[in-house]
Amino acid sequence: MCRACRYSKCLEAGMNPMGVQQKPEASLMLAKMNDAYRNLLATRITVLRGRSLFPRAIDYREAIEQGIKDVPLVANWVSQCFGKDFRELKEKNVLFENFYTRFCQLEITFTSHLKKTPDLIQLPSGDYIDMENLDRFYKDEQQMGKEEIERLFKPFYTMQKRSLILPMISLNLDHFEFLALCTLILWDTSLEGLSKETVLLSAKVKDQVMKELAAHLKNSIKMAAIVNLLPAVERCVRKFQEDMEMTQIFDIYKSSKQFYDLVNGNFFQNGEMLAAINEKTLVHWREGERPQELSLPLQSPDTVAYIHLSPTGFHAIVSTKLGQNFYIHVKSNTVHHLKKLKCLVTAVGWNPDYSKETEVTGPILMGSVKGSVIEMNVGSSGMMTCLKELIGQVALVSEQRAAGGTVAATAAITDIQLFQLTDDDATSPKPKKWLTIIAQMARLIVLSTELDPPAPPVKIGGFTSSASLQAGLMNLNLAEAPPTTTFHTLFQSPLSHTITASKFSEKFKNGYLTMHPMIDPKRYAWISPDGISIGRVNVYAERIQDVLEEEFNIEHRLIEGRLEPPTGIALTDYHILLAYSTRLLALSLLPPHNVALEDAWNQELGPSIGFQTDTTTEFYWLYTSTVAMKYGTNDEARYIWKTYLDRGDYVKALQIARMRKEIEPDALEMVLRRQADFYIQEKNYTAAAEILAQSSEPFESVVLKFLTNSSERKMGLKTLLDKKLERLTRHEDKMRRDALVMWLLNVQLEELAEMRRMKAHSQDPGYGEKLKDTTDHVQRYFMRKNVIESIQTNREAVYRMCVAHADFEMQLFFAHAVKDLRTEIEILMLREQYIEVLELLRSQRISELTYEMLPLLIEHIPKQIIVFLIQTPEISPHKLTPCISLCVKNLEMAIPAIKYLETVFKFQNPNADSKTLHNIYLHLLAKFRKERVLPYLESHGTIRSEIPYDLDFAMRTMEQFNLEEPIVFLYTVAGMYGDAVEKALGFSVDLAKRCALQIEDTEPWLLEQEDYCRQKLDEKGKKAIWLKIGQYYVARGETEQCIQLIQESDHLISIQDLLPIIPKFTKIGTLKPVIVDFLMRNKERLEKLERNMKEATDIASEIRDKQERLKNRTTVVKPSDICAHCTRPISGRPFNVHSCRHFFHRECLESAMIPFLTPEDVSRMRGLIGEEERCLGQMKAEQLAGNQKGGREKQEKYLRIATAISAILGSECPLCGDIAISLIDKPFMSDEEFAVDLNSWIL
């Protein structure tokens, strides 16, 4: 369906067009800021925390140091967030100065909220300040007490917690909301000095952010609460600035001026300049301060030759032409004469362990003009704790010599780079690995060794040196002092490597060496007589020969036809800067190394005499005898990506394009498409898919490039879908993510099915390995977090897909992964893996599924199931009825089931209701173990209320399997002695006699909650049972045995009872003794019977006489008699008279008798009353008409009807007849009538 049709259908369904959301912008500002902020957090961990592996509680000095280091990182983050618009603003410094301190306050409290630590201030490095132990944070030699510290500084931290941390926790502030607040703080239009363009841009940015925040929140109340945090931030900043001002005034816990300015909005990047303005005067220029002049005690003709400033700008070594040296503590602008150091120092290798603001330089290496290397350690007071010449001529570490030239000409050391390669703590006793690179005019020397931690420094009284006098040093002691240096073993190590130039020229006095970046360098450039050598640097290389690896060499250029050596060199990311006497050249590092910039200056400024790099600000300073010129890079990568792209170096082009994504978004798209087209031409569809997945090209057009039957393109399609899936991480991408998951799953299942077909049709064993690898790949795909979440949502669709590919293995794997136990069991059952199903059930908690599956399993593995049931006491036997009942099918299932039931009966509660289980057990015994049925029945007795089985079921089961003795026993339990005897006579007359004898021992009983009861048999019933046995004997002609029943029944039956069944022609001789005995026993009874008969005859005669007298009986009705129902006189209306002298009006008798009549009599009576009324009316009409004959007929009819009514109503007296007697236990009022009557008494 096209978009227009879909929109029309939406309108027909009632969609509100005004509610349609507008198309979001291509790049949401908060999302972009969030990505950049994540990168900032990762960078901070490395830069701010340094070598500390875990977060820790730090003191105020470390916090100040981290805050200073964090400034350029935050500035770079702001630049990434707002791009070119912010960088081109003239007032960007004003905005950032106002922003930084407020941002810090907001961020540290936001981080404390995220980590749920309201009592800890979380710093950007991951370290923290413990608010409950501020004395640890403010630890200092001043020894201020804990109570005083809390009195001075605790209010600020309490304000942070109350005003920011706790409200953030209450609001559950997230990253998008935090970044929105940062934006509002940065673009503050209330600052003074902002131009109209800046104000307009600020309003535009804040408006965009507020729209995105509103869309993100969908809750105006929370938005208002978030914006209300801004005044709290401002209050915390003001309090912090007041505390900082207090520390400056009272000189307690005082921070550096740079940090003080940073907090108050007047800060700058670290930059120091130390320059000579004449032969003996230096000027110290620090940004934001007035220049300071420093005078050196020099005598003519001695002048300043070299100034060596440490990378941090804290220390400086100044060397003169005549070999005098001075140490300058730059921070205090104090000059100290190093009188014991007598040589021209041409290079200094500063110790990276002392890169922080310290009072000492630490062990440093100095190179002289003669090629010697000296170690020195000097403090801010100018006192040297170490000064020793380590080697007289550094070239001696290698057998190579510079070709064509003297030692003096080639010996000057031009640069020393010192690196510490291990990241152990400074106090660790483990040896540290050090690397140094020493540069000379025609030689690079690389040295490496492991050094033990230095011993505590000891001040030496004199200077010890080697025998070399060329260095201009004096040995003042007769005996050589023991080594107190740190780096002396560096020049004794076998790990060394030398790179030497192949030619020599007198014009090249200095072999300049530079590296980029200065911290952890990756590239070097070295000027030698051979040209400009440029290559890679890997200070962590395993082989020392691989530390410096030349990539290419640029030959020296001729300037106006002559060879002019550079006076300095510097490296940037993509260019090399060469300083000549009258110009600066910037050469591209990419072939053909074209000149990117040529900057010539007026000759009046003088020739260039030096070129230095500020490692902190990354500015480059070129100086002549009169001026210093500052250079810096400005988006030097803007054309580099095109150069790499044209050369086919897609990796580097892509790397640069990604870095410039915010500046040139089209560049990244162009590189990605070109690279993908290249891979498609090379038929490397997998690589092309990986590239196109990063592109913003419409998904449909990208997919079309891979929709073919080619296996390579299918692999590319799979890779494309996989990469696209990895990028869909937002919650709103759920539908797209689910669609990609299902598509990718279908592709992989097709691939798996194809691999199975190939394996089935090929004998190549390699297909088996490929199938295994493919299966493992699909399973790993299943287990990915984003995939498993989508598949769980669309579980049934995945099952259908697996079934469509007949891939039950993957369906089983997936069911196991999502813990879909039912589906997993269904698949195993389908594959007849019954043991695996049982093991799966065994591993799970007992549930309804267990009881559901056991009946299906017991038919296939009965023994294992019964063992499982016995070993699992948690299983309820009462829920196993469907399972156990199936065991009646065959003996293999029945034997384990019998064993299990016997175990259950043995350990179960005697009061438990297990009738169904006993029924099944009885059925199993009747079918497979008949000999055990009767003992089982007898073991439970004959009292029906105590037997555990169902008697009716047991009787039917015994009848089914024709078990005669158990049937007889069950008949006796049921009280059916006649049936028991009759059944027993069929196979055992003795059993029949025992059953008859049991009658005397039984007691009557009544089953609870049942209608059936067994009453004690009377004498007649007992005789009938014994007579059945007699008939059995008579039928077999055993009359004597029949006569013996009289004795066996304990004379319950007599000869009189047996005579009717004895044959007529039986000899009297056999019966004579029995008859005589009977007559003797019953003599008195016969006499009593005779008397009873005479009495009965007399009573009968008396009754006949009374009946005759009653025929003539009459009842006299008096006028005063009243109706027994209404208590009114009986006369005046028709009435009925009973022999009991209860009189009733006809109507009253009807009312009194209706409740006692049957519905049929009531209906009949009402019909007769209706006929009576009609007949009475007809009779009156006939009389009025004078029709006597018709009147007599109607009168006769009326009398018949009245007689019939009287027969119904007058059969009994309703007050004293049988009807009244039968209702003696009936309540006078029903429950409803009683409730009505009771309520009538309520006042």
Give me a quick take on this structure.
One of its GO terms (molecular function) is protein-macromolecule adaptor activity. The chain is of the alpha+beta class.
Characterise this structure:
It is a single chain. 48% of the residues lie in helices and 14% in strands. The protein is an alpha+beta fold and 1243 residues long. The strands form eleven sheets. A four-stranded antiparallel sheet has the order 6-7-8-9, with no helix packed on it. Strands 10-11-12-13 form a four-stranded antiparallel sheet, with no helix packed on it. Strands 14-15-16-17 form a four-stranded antiparallel sheet, with no helix packed on it. A hairpin with a 5-residue loop joins strand 4 (281-286) and strand 5. Helix 4 packs across helix 6, helix 19 packs across helix 21 and helix 35 packs antiparallel against helix 36. It is elongated and about 185 Å long. The model is unreliable at 22-27, 257-270, 399-409, 457-483 and 1005-1013 (pLDDT under 50).
